[in-house]
Amino acid sequence: MGRESKYVAEPFRIKMVETISVLSREERERKIAEAHFNPFYLRAEDVYIDLMTDSGTNAMSAAQWSALIQGDEAYAGARSFFKFEAAGKDIFGYDFIMPVHQGRAAEKVLFSLLLSKGQYAVSNMFFDTTRAHVELAGARAIDCVTPEAKDPQIRAPFKGNMDVACLEALIAKLGARQIGMVNMTITNNSAGGQPVSLDNIRSVAGVCKKHGIHLNIDAARFAENAYFVKQREPACQDMTIKQIIREMFSFADTFTMSAKKDAIVNIGGIVGINDGSSDLVIKSKANCISYEGFTTYGGLAGRDLEAIAVGLYEGIDEEFLSYRIGQMEYLAACFDEEEVVYQAPVGGHGVFVDAAAMFPQIPYDEFPGMVLGTELYKEAGIRATEIGSYMLGNDPDTGKQLKSEFEFLRLAIPRRVYTRSHLDVVVEAMLSVKKRAPQFKRGMRITWEPPILRHFQAHLSAIEK
C-alpha cells in the first residue's frame, strides 16, 4: 500500500531508546481475555504500540533530564518551585500558580470550592475525570459543544467550541445562581482533541461576566490549541504562540491543568488563579495542603517541578508543535486514503476513529469502541482508549446507561516517542480490522463495574448470541 501523505520530520535526534517486543497473535488473544477485555488491565510489557494516552507517556528532552539533577527537595520554599512558578506566570500571565501532582488533583482542589449540591457545571465537553469531580462536588455536568462536533465527517476549523446559544439557553432555564462554573476544555478532548477558537473563548467569557458565572479553563492541551488558533483564526496568524496563550487565558478566572500533556513531563499539574488577591487563593492553598502537600511542592518532588519549568517552554515551541500536529495529520491522511472514518479534521493529540461507522450493526450499549480497541490489540498489540458510551457511564441519578454523542476509539500519540514506521503499523492494523468488521454481529457487555469512573476497572465479555 502506497503512502501519499507527507510526514513532518522530527525536530530532534534520538539519543536513547527503549526496547519493546511483539507478542504472538495467540498470546495477545490470551492476554486481552485475562484482562477482562479492559485495556487498563494489560501489562505495559505486553503492548507493542501504546496509544492509550498522551498523558505522562511523553519522552523528556536532554534539557529536562539535566534539570532533574538540579531538583531542590526542600519541603517548603524550594528553589525548584520558584523556577516552576516563574515559568507559569510568564506563559499564562496569572498572579497565582500552584503545583499539584496531576490534572484531576487540580480539579479536586478547585472544584469543591466552586460547586455544591444542586448546582450545575457547563462545558464545551467534559472529559470523564473532570465530569467525575463535578459529580463528587455534588453538582451535575452538562455538555454544550458546538453542533458541528457531533458529525465526525463535517470538517469545521473549531469543532471544540462551546455552543454559546446553548449556554445562554441553559442560564435562562436554570438561573445563573445555579450554575457554579463554566469549564472550557482546550483542546476539547472528548470531542476528538478539537480546538477552541479565541473568538469562542472571548464570547463565552462575555456571557459568564454578564451573569457573574465563574469561568475555568481545562488547560491540559493549551499549546496545541494555541497552535490551531494561529493556523486557523485569521486575526491571530501574526501572533506568537505565547501571545495567543496569554490572550486565551486572560478571559478566564482560573485554570486547572495536567502538565502531563503539553508540558511534556511524566507527572505534574497546575492550579492557576488570575486574581492573586482573591479569597479563592487562600482556600485553594488550604485544599492543596490537605490533599496534595505544602503549596510550594503540591505532591511533586523538586525534580518534577524543574522538568515542568523546562517543558512548559519546550511545549510551546512552534517548530515542535508543527511536528506534533503533523503526526496526527499524517495518520489521518492515511486513514483518508483507506476510507477509515474519524473525527475530522484531525485534532491535536490523537486520531479519534469512529467505531460506530466501522461497526454500524453494534448498538451504543454494546460498546463498538471497545470492540474496535480489542480487535486492534489482537491484530498488532496496539492499545487505545474508548471515548464513547462505555466511558460516559451511567446516569448518576437513574443508573441507566447514557448514550454518548460519539463512539470513538482514541489513538493518542505520546510526544516524541513514536516514529512514522510505528504509525504505519497502526494504519495496517486498522485496515485489517476494518475488512473484518462486517463479520461482527454483537458487541460487548459489562460483567462487573465500580460505581464511578468505571472504564478504568470494569470487566467485559463478548456477547456471543
What does this entry look like structurally?
The chain is of the alpha/beta class. The radius of gyration is 21 Å and the shape is globular. α4 (103-114) crosses α10 and α12 (318-337) runs parallel beside α16. The two termini are 36 Å apart. The chain has helices at 25-34, 62-69, 79-92, 103-114, 128-136, 164-174, 198-211, 222-232, 241-250, 279-291, 302-314, 318-337, 355-358, 368-380, 389-392, 420-436, and strands spanning 49-50, 96-100, 120-123, 140-143, 179-185, 215-218, 254-258, 269-273, 350-354, 382-383, 385-387, 408-412, 444-448, 459-462. The chain contains 16 helices and 14 strands.
Strand and helix layout:
Elements (H helix, E strand, L loop, with lengths): L24 H10 L14 E2 L11 H8 L9 H14 L3 E5 L2 H12 L5 E4 L4 H9 L3 E4 L20 H11 L4 E7 L12 H14 L3 E4 L3 H11 L8 H10 L3 E5 L10 E5 L5 H13 L10 H13 L3 H20 L12 E5 H4 L9 H13 L1 E2 L1 E3 L1 H4 L15 E5 L7 H17 L7 E5 L10 E4 L3
Parallel strand pairs: 1-10, 3-4, 3-5, 5-6, 6-7
Antiparallel strand pairs: 2-8, 7-8, 9-12, 11-12, 13-14
Number of domains: 2
Which structural class should the secondary elements be placed in? alpha/beta
Strand content: 5-15%
Counting H and I runs of at least 4 residues, what is the number of helices?
Answer: 16
Major sheet: arrangement of strands: 2-8-7-6-5-3-4
Radius of gyration: 21 Å
Look at the structure and give the mean pLDDT: 96
CATH architecture of the largest domain: 3-Layer(aba) Sandwich
What is the succession of H and E elements?
HEHHEHEHEHEHEHHEEHHHEHHEEHEHEE
